[in-house]
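Reminder to self: tokens first, then the designed residues, so the page reads top to bottom the way the pipeline ran.
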């Protein structure tokens, strides 16, 4: 079975990393090709090393007409049995190109962009958003063979918002590789802390995520401002790409005088190391499809404080293996973080529960096996 994946670009975001893991994890059974709308650079060689052809343009494709032509040409060249798309632009182009080529298509659903909680963070005209939603729903109902959702929360939201029959949506959670993350141990913790200039007994809160309004980091900074009043040595270690929130976050740090309390590492690919240095992992997102960084914290037994949004309620077992707080509530966030810093018995218990839940359903192996079953069902 030949599968052609269509994606906007190959950065180090969650969807891109998961695509790579799926391709590499199933290449022994399925043949894969890849279409991107922008040059992929060194990543092309990585995929080629396992026999995956990459259809990339010489320069970024600015227009949808150019993206469609590029994708249609790749379909003609590769002759896939299935076109698998992920992220809105790739969904839009890939579905149309696959439909016109009479090739079945599968779209991965990785977020809840039409949920009401997402609207305040989107600087998009409501009429334009309604138009996009209409087009997305029409193509989903009439030009898409099947859907893959990364959580039940995403499946439910998509069915509600786009009018998709739930029977057409298969839930296969994303997974994370414990081999890539490594294991937690005192020696690793101390080595990373030494690299970051942190003392052994410094209380450390870790956050991983790109700097976007969706991630709610401004509320975490406000929570930290409350925490340092009683814990002046507390440090917040942040890692993630700059984005639309970067300017606002820098201003918040300056206004709250947190320059000595916040360590902003920017993008890092050693997230396992960063997590091992932390006492608490904080994830204040306003909406999520799943929350890949939460899975990484679960895998390494880092006690978690997160927002009580649908996807995280699902992943974190309704709060059984984490402390959950309302979104946009710095006071509640500070209280929950402070509790886990003070009560290490509870913190360790939550970390162990989270690791058990990760092992039961969110390992990379479980994800790969789920995708194998989905591909097989569509091939048959």
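Designed residues (380 positions):
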């Amino acid at each position: 079975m030949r599968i052609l994946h269509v994606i906007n670009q190959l950065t180090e975001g969650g969807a891109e990393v998961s695509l790579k893991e799926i391709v590499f994890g199933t290449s022994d059974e399925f043949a894969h090709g890849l279409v991107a709308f922008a040059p992929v650079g060194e990543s092309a060689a990585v995929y080629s090393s396992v026999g995956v052809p990459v259809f990339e343009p010489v320069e970024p494709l600015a227009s949808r007409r150019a993206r469609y032509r590029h994708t249609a040409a790749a379909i003609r060249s590769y002759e896939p049995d299935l076109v698998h798309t992920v992220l809105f632009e790739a969904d839009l182009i890939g579905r149309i190109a696959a439909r016109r080529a009479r090739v079945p298509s599968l779209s991965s659903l990785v977020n809840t962009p039409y949920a009401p909680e997402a609207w305040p963070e989107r600087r998009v005209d409501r009429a334009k958003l309604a138009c996009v939603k209409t087009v997305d729903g029409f193509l989903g109902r009439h030009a898409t063979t099947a859907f893959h959702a990364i959580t039940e929360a995403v499946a439910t939201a998509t069915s509600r918002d786009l009018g998709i029959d739930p029977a057409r949506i298969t839930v296969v959670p994303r997974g994370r590789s414990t081999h890539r993350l490594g294991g937690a141990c005192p020696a690793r913790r101390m080595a990373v802390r030494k690299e970051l200039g942190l003392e052994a007994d410094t209380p450390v809160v870790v956050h991983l995520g790109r700097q976007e309004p969706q991630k709610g980091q401004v509320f975490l900074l406000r929570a930290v401002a409350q925490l340092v009043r009683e814990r002046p040595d507390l440090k917040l270690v942040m890692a993630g790409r700059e984005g639309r929130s970067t300017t606002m976050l820098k201003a918040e740090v300056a206004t709250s005088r947190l320059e000595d309390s916040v360590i902003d590492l920017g993008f890092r690919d050693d997230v396992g190391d960063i997590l091992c240095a932390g006492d608490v992992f904080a994830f204040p997102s306003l909406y999520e499809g799943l929350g890949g960084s939460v899975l990484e914290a679960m895998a390494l037994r880092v006690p978690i404080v997160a927002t009580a949004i649908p996807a995280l309620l699902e992943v974190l077992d309704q709060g059984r293996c984490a402390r959950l707080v309302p979104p946009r509530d710095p006071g509640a966030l500070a209280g929950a973080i402070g509790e886990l810093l003070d009560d290490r018995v509870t913190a360790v218990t939550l970390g162990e529960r989270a690791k058990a839940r990760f092992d039961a359903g969110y390992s990379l192996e479980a994800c790969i096996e789920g995708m194998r079953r989905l591909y097989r069902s569509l091939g048959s």
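The longest strand covers residues 2-7.
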